[in-house]
Every structure is written in structure tokens, then in C-alpha cells.
Amino acid sequence: MRILIVGSGGREHALAWKCAASTRVGAVIVAPGNAGTAMEPKVQNAAVDAIDIDALIALARAERIDLTIIGPEAPLVAGIVDAFADAGLKCFGPRRNCAQLEGSKTFSKEFLRRHRIPSAAYRTFTRATFDAQYVERHATPIVVKASGLAAGKGVVIAASADEAIGAIQAMFGGEFGDAGHEVVIEEFLSGEEVSFIVMADGAHVLPLATSQDHKRLLDGDRGPNTGGMGAYSPAGIVTAAVHARIMREVIHPTVRALAADGMPYTGFLYAGLMIAADGTPNVLEFNCRLGDPETQPLIMRLQSDLTVLVEAALAGRLDELQAQWDPRTALGVVMAAAGYPGRVQTGDSIAGLAGAAALPGKIFHGGTRAFGQLP
Ligand code: AMP
Q: What pLDDT was estimated at residue 127?
């Protein structure tokens, strides 16, 4: 079969590499991919942007693609799965209505409250409805979130009411563009943070192995928050008891409620959770796709054929199979460009890839480009 992977990060490199390893797969196209995907056997890049849905449909037709897997959230929130379905193309990911779980924090908070799934108490405001007294009445720290997609940057944990009001006004003022026209103000939760990723087929759920990412830039959990400086799997904090509570109190109720609301969820579903001292798994956020960098160590451990799992999900048969995982721990470390997570320096060259490829482990690229002669 022929596979299309949409995206250009380390997550998509890992997905492409894993799909290409399947004996069922003849070719993998990555749109737009990166220098790392271009170097993989059976894999080639296509210069089509991950958000250009019409061009991706044309590419899938021209390349006679049998199955498309979407990496990043932006095309999912924009409705790529609906468009592929309308074009008669098989595409794995949630439809636009379900992707609102990530695309709109207002939507996901209302959904969680309506279905009594544990999460922080909150209110949403627009500039017109904002009431500073609401913030002043509440304990600090208090959490301020831009409702829309803000590439993981739209969350401020404010130590004082003044700081919260400043952050809210900056969001209304356009700091995150349209994403900040609506803000969610929520109670600060303490506990242990965990990410929990499953595959869903509309009715059934297949939990992936557990994983944990690390967001602070520097060693020892210091420095600013980033998109993730590394991840490992399994995550020891998710004991069998915690796992059972997350499935029972968050994952199953979410998938059941979405189906009951007339919008069955198919795709990867990622819950960011704060496990309270009493073990309650509070939802901090939903993502409608795999995490990056969590995907990379997960894929290193996945022994099952990913294309078989995805096809089973698209056929509504996830209850019929299990995923096999290498019991050994996998650990991924991100090497970022200078300046990250601020203004990054682009165009620097990466040396030593051939030597590193000879070592145990695997290098996945994110946003790299080949120029000149490869070593
Ligand atoms: P989010 O994008 O909503 O997951 O928020 C990004 C990060 O902010 C999370 O990974 C948490 O570390 C932190 N965070 C978000 N919401 C809360 C909350 N209600 N209480 C404490 N920390 C939070």
C-alpha cells in the first residue's frame, strides 16, 4: 500500500519511518517532510504545505495513496479529514467537529463540564464580557488561556490578579491573533502532570504505551517552557491504578460522550492530565493528534504494524486487537536550534549525522532542510 503522512516534524519523521518498515507498505510520501524523511528508504517528500488541503487531496490522488495519516493539529482543526472523506480518500484523524477539542478551549471546557469529566473550574470571557472582578475574587496563582490554537504558547500561570489581567488584556489585544479573542480563566491545579495518548475508532479505544515529555528548556527542570525538549516511555507515574482511573474517568467518558453528541471520535486522542493528590485525573487539555516529542519514543517501542492499527481504527475494529510494545524504556532528547524557544537561528548546518546513524538509537528530524551535498 501507499501511505501519505502530512507534516514536517520529528513526529511525522517517526510515523513515516515506522510505516516504511511495514512489509505491507510500498511507498511513503511525506508532505512536506524534512531532510530526515527524504533520506529514509521507501520514503519521499512532496513539496505541499501541511495546511493546503486541496493540494493534499490532489497529491493523494496523483500518488494513488491508500491511507493518509495527519500529524499536526492545524489541518485537523481546519477539517482535512472531512475534506478527504468527501473526496473518497481514507484519512486517519478526527473530523473538524471533534478537533475542536484542541482547537477551542472554550469548546473543550464546556464539553468537560457538561459530561462531568474532571477538570479545573473555569469561566470564559471575550473583551465585551470580561469582568476583572472575577479574577480579583479568585485565589492565585490563576491560569489564563487563549481559547484557540496558539502553538502551545497561549497559557499563562499568573502569580497575581494584576499579572492575570495584564495577560488577558494582551490576549484581547491580539498577542495570539484570533486565538486570543476568547480567553479561558481557570483554577490552578497542583499535582503530577501526565500525558495519555490513545487511538479511537469512534466507539472503541486502544491506549498507547504511556509517555512523558519535558517542557523546560534546561537541565534540572529550569528555564522557560518549550514545545518539549524530550520524552520517554513508559512513564512510571502512570501505575496500573492511575491508568485504570484515567480510562474510567476521562478516556471512556470522553469517547462515549462525543459519540452520544453525534460526533464519534476517530484518530489519536491525547489528554494532558494533572493527577491530584487524591488520584483524580484532571484534564488540562485535549490534543487531537499525537504529541511531539512523545511520538518518537513511542514509535521506537511499538512492535505492531502501525498501518494495521490505523486501518483497524478506520474500520471500527480497535476492540479486536492489541498493540505490542518493546518492554524496554525509550528516551528521546531534542537538539534545538540556537535561540529556541525564542527567536531561533535558522540555516545552521548539522554535522555528524552519518556517524550518529551508526550508533544504537535513531535520529528523527524536525523542520530540517537538505542543502548542498549530503555527507
Ligand atoms: P495546556 O496547553 O492547557 O496543557 O497548558 C500548558 C501547561 O500549562 C500545562 O502543561 C500545565 O503545565 C500548565 N497548566 C495548564 N492548565 C493548568 C492548571 N489549571 N493548573 C496548573 N497548571 C496548568
A: 84
